[in-house]
Amino acid sequence: MKAYIFDLDGTVGETLPLCIAAFQAAIEPLLGRKVSAEEITGTFGPSEEGTIMALIPQHFDEGLSAYVSHYTRLHPEMCPAPFAGIPQLIGQLRGAGKVVAMVTGKGPLSGVVTFRQFGLENAFDEVVYGIPEGPSKPQGIARVLEHFALAPQDAVYIGDMPGDVTIAHAQGLKAYAAAWADSADVQVLKDAEPEALFTSVADCARYIAQQEGLKA
């Protein structure tokens, strides 16, 4: 492979519980009721602006500002670091001359907070964020391939959701399933038929080293 493209939430770090907590803290006071995790995740696909627009469109600006504020405040407590081994894996790939990119549904407002918290501000050759209008990972993957003049068969997408596998395959990429988050559903990921599935970052790193002939 010439390029490894990562998802963010649930792949690089366990940020999903943080996202849900920040959305609840931001939305519930403005909506005047409790909001379940399922209600929040049901809006996922677009960036955080899409969730705010779906749940409290009448308070969009205030809700978005509150979300970013709570996300920033809670991040050091709820998700202080990326998954163990992720920085080393990225370093291993970049040291081998691979393109290491990120295509995420997360928007830049919270994405930059996470990169700063994780110390990964300069870890990726390109980052393509999500957009408010809707899911955009296929366009993001296409953008990375075009930017680096890569054919789809030269790249692999690493993500934690069955949809990530489906999107990668639809774009002509291989898919590696990241099943190391507590929230990962291994069987559902297997059913999506990725080229490989890993329940730890260490296993993923070993596999890539073997495939690429790298020093593990």
Structure characterization notes:
With 216 residues, the chain is an alpha/beta fold. Strands 3-2-1-4-5-6 form a 6-stranded parallel β-sheet, with helices on both faces. It is built from 10 helices and 6 strands, in the order E-H-H-H-H-H-E-H-E-H-E-H-E-H-E-H. The longest helix is centred in the N-terminal third of the chain and has 19 residues, at 60-78. The mean pLDDT is 96.
Succession of helices and strands:
EHHHHHEHEHEHEHEH
Work out the strand percent: 5-15%
Average pLDDT, all residues: 96
Low-confidence stretches: none
The quaternary structure here is: single chain
Q: Total strand count, please?
A: 6
Helix segment count?
Answer: 10
Rg to the nearest angstrom? 17 Å
User: How would you describe the shape?
Assistant: globular
Structural class: alpha/beta
Features:
216 residues, alpha/beta, 6-stranded parallel beta sheet, 10 helices, 12% strand, globular
Topology:
Layout: E1 3-6, H1 16-31, H2 37-41, H3 48-55, H4 60-78, H5 86-95, E2 99-103, H6 108-118, E3 126-128, H7 137-147, E4 155-159, H8 162-170, E5 174-178, H9 186-191, E6 196-198, H10 201-212
Parallel strand pairs: 1-2, 1-4, 2-3, 4-5, 5-6
